[in-house]
Amino acid sequence: MERHPLNLTINGTPYAVETEFRKTLADTIREDCGLTGTHVGCEHGVCGACTVIVDGKAVRSCLMFGHQAEGMEIETVEGLEQDGVLHVLQEAFMDHHALQCGYCTPGFLMLAKGVVERGEDLPEEELRHLLSSNLCRCTGYQNIIAAVRAAIVAFREKAAGGVEQTA
Question: 88-159 adopts what CATH topology?
């Protein structure tokens, strides 16, 4: 296959790679940029394991070509931790045992990031609906929901300048 130059910005870092036009963003991130935190599950946009943030919106990176993301800001799970400090979502997932095998976790973290960082207090039904778009075969979702709720509270407290707390 013919490879073409591609410039991506992932977690604030520029990546200049060469890849095929037909290659998905998920595979481009993993194979060409070496960021393997984004997992590939179903490759049909159903499971959500490959969820990343592109220009502020959660997207299934298996449904987007890498070349479509050129010039956009991409965030992956590797960008959550900053200077050795875990994001409140990562802390909450650990504290609330919201992961077991961990395969779906990066997708859930990226899906929930926007809600948490906007400090949205979603009604239970809306939060369940949002999180049900990603599949997990291990946890039963209760701990994931509890973790996201705790992360929202922790993020609000942190943003308000309160004592930094984990979720």
Answer: DNA polymerase; domain 1 (1.10.150)
